[in-house]
């Protein structure tokens, strides 16, 4: 006699599996959607700007000029270092939303004002590690890095990988389980650690964040990142359509010589395209003929446009270079403007990112009271943002 119940069970299981696969596919695709207001394209990284100043810029310049978003400096409490270098922002002490950019109230107000101006906000997310030194943070909380005690989270010694340096970038376990430049390395394989990180991310989603630039993603196991991303809430429906997912763009530096590959991170988010800035910097500094850019795109080893976020420089590369290349910055203004204009004119890259920071002589120098460069306001750049919005989707010809 035919066992019809078995057939029904198999069909039911297959249906559930299909539904689950569809849900997962929809979620992963959603996490690669940049959540821009239609007709806008470019994010500007407003490095070390205050929340109040970003809010004003959204309303008076970025919105009217057609920008799409702002990447803000890490919003979580960081250790206070004596001479206040920029990199203290990348040494979190807790997930309290108080930094030298402003407190939680100012952050929430800025996000709301920018969203209403058509500008999405993307937080620089630092969750690979915690602060390397003991002391007091920007919200007044303390930590003892030596014992791995961060009571405001709280994290303790059992929440970290064992202490070890990264010496061999051909060993993916060492890259992901040891300490990047001596920073205590969180163990995201532990459910408790993932839960605390997701709690922090959900807090930012609740106040209107559109997505995250994920710092040092290369140093976190892909499966752990995917698990955390999938646990984060949908975006706030006050500002976004129902069921919208956060956009993730991840820092995975890969020039082809390391064991950790950018492709490992593409299934659940986008990856920052470091090769883009390197090759354009070489071309516009005369190290490659401009005519060779005729086939600019994947032929140059760049990721597919829908998988990447393209840029010329960021806060790290403008100070230290990238891939052994001197990266163009405001200090070579003419060549820099040409490289950024080329990026904005070329269709490769569904999401472009511009940098706006401050003048410096010392690579460690923190933000000034004055001396801001305002690269995003330079007419050769801001006008090209508008140009890109107008021509997006049209056929491109290299003449």
From TrEMBL:
Q: Which residues form the signal peptide?
A: 1-30
Please provide, alphabetically and separated by semicolons, the GO molecular function terms listed in this UniProt record: alpha-amylase activity; cation binding
User: What is the species listed in this Swiss-Prot or TrEMBL entry?
Assistant: Callosobruchus maculatus
What cofactor does this chain's UniProt record say it requires?
A: Ca(2+); chloride
Q: What is the lineage of its organism?
A: Eukaryota, Metazoa, Ecdysozoa, Arthropoda, Hexapoda
* Classification via InterPro entries: Alpha_amylase, GH, GH13_cat_dom
* Name of the protein in its database record: alpha-amylase
Enumerate the catalysed reactions.
Endohydrolysis of (1->4)-alpha-D-glucosidic linkages in polysaccharides containing three or more (1->4)-alpha-linked D-glucose units
GO terms for biological process, alphabetical: carbohydrate metabolic process
Q: Which UniProt keywords apply?
A: Carbohydrate metabolism, Chloride, Disulfide bond, Glycosidase, Hydrolase, Signal
Keyword Translocase recorded? no
EC numbers, comma separated: 3.2.1.1
Residue intervals of the Glycosyl hydrolase family 13 catalytic domain:
41-388
